[in-house]
Inverse folding.
């Protein structure tokens, strides 16, 4: 089915213009967003996504429409989708502004879009030749300034892959362009700390919580504990690799830099645990940031 679009206070035709040409989100990428999965008309982890949206906007100094407005827009989109939608994006920009970096003083722009799209079934990854700045102004923010990720995804596609894994400026494993990473090594499940520069992924957080509750040896590493060279161990079969995201869940990486990979047994258990818990709890309680 076509996309369902809500903007400017009402549902819109998918092909209808919904923002002005001078919107700061369009001219300079001055906005934040969230992407989440939908199953049977129910968005997954909505409370957590809205909490992260508010956090990202606060970090950028962008006003966010009140939660009642956002939730009302979401309900209208879901009702219009009649249970067939599978993916939603909530976007907030700083609104109309000048053609430079300085913002205008108008109200923010809110757009909620949803559509039917297949969940990514496999992940083929490559190492990106660029690094993530763990001390940048947008570090840890789900910003619409996504050109850096777009460049890395195109690089991955040129190599026959669909995801690029990136190091931070210290040469440590950080994240993918749209995923967090988990490494199975030495009988543990390891993921880089937020200090590495990675986004605080919703699925990453739930995998840590639910994995620990299930008795799995999962933990956030210390800084520098996972250098980028750990991926050589993955290729050699001495470690295993998975990525996490709202659309992928906990997903085994099928190949890295053209080398086929085998799933790790602990990562298989983590994936199964996540899927079971996600099916039972569609809106997990929001924790304090970690």
């Amino acid at each position: 089915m076509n996309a369902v679009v809500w903007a400017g206070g009402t549902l819109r035709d998918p092909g209808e213009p919904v923002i002005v040409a001078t919107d700061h989100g369009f001219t300079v990428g001055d906005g934040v967003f969230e992407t989440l999965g939908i199953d049977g008309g129910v968005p997954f982890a909505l409370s957590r996504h809205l909490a992260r949206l508010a956090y990202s906007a606060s970090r950028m100094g962008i006003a966010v429409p009140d939660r009642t407005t956002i939730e009302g827009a979401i309900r209208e989109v879901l009702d219009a989708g009649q249970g067939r939608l599978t993916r939603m994006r909530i976007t907030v920009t700083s609104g109309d502004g000048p053609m430079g970096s300085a913002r205008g003083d108008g109200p923010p722009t809110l757009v909620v879009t949803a559509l039917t799209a297949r969940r990514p079934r496999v992940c083929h990854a490559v190492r990106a030749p660029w690094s993530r700045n763990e001390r940048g102004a947008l570090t840890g923010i789900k910003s619409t300034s996504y050109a850096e990720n777009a460049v890395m995804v195109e690089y991955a596609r040129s190599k026959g892959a669909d995801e690029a894994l990136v190091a931070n400026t210290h040469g440590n494993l950080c994240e993918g362009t749209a995923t967090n990473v988990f490494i199975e090594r030495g009988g543990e499940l390891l993921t880089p700390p937020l200090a590495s520069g990675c986004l605080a992924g919703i699925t990453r957080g739930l995998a840590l919580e639910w994995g620990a509750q299930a008795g799995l040896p999962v933990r956030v590493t210390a800084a520098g504990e996972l250098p980028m060279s750990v991926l050589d161990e993955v290729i050699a079969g001495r470690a295993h690799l998975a990525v996490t995201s709202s659309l992928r869940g906990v997903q085994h990486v099928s190949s890295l830099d053209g080398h086929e990979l085998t799933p790790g047994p602990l990562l298989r258990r983590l994936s199964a645990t996540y899927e079971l818990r996600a099916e039972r709890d569609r809106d997990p309680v929001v924790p304090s940031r970690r």
